[in-house]
Amino acid sequence: MKHLKGIGLSFAISAMLLGASDIASAQGRRGRGEERRQENQAERDQRQQQRQQEQQNNNQERQQRWEQQRQQQQQASQERQQRWEQQRQQQRNTQQQQERIQQSREREDRWQQQRQEQIQRSQEQQQRWEQQRQQQQVEQQRRQQWERDQNRDRNRDWDNNRRDNNRDNNNWRQNRNWQQEQQQRADRYRQDWQRRQNFLYQRQRLLEQQRRLNQLRYQQRYLDQIRRDQLRLQQWRYNDYGPYNYRYNRGGSYYETNRYGAEMLQRAIRDGYEEGFYAGQADRQDGYGYNLNDAYGYQDASYGYDGYYVELGDYQYYFREGFRRGYEDGYYSRSRYGSYSNGGYSILGSILEGILGLQLLN
Question: 0.70 cut: is pTM over it?
Answer without folding.
Answer: no
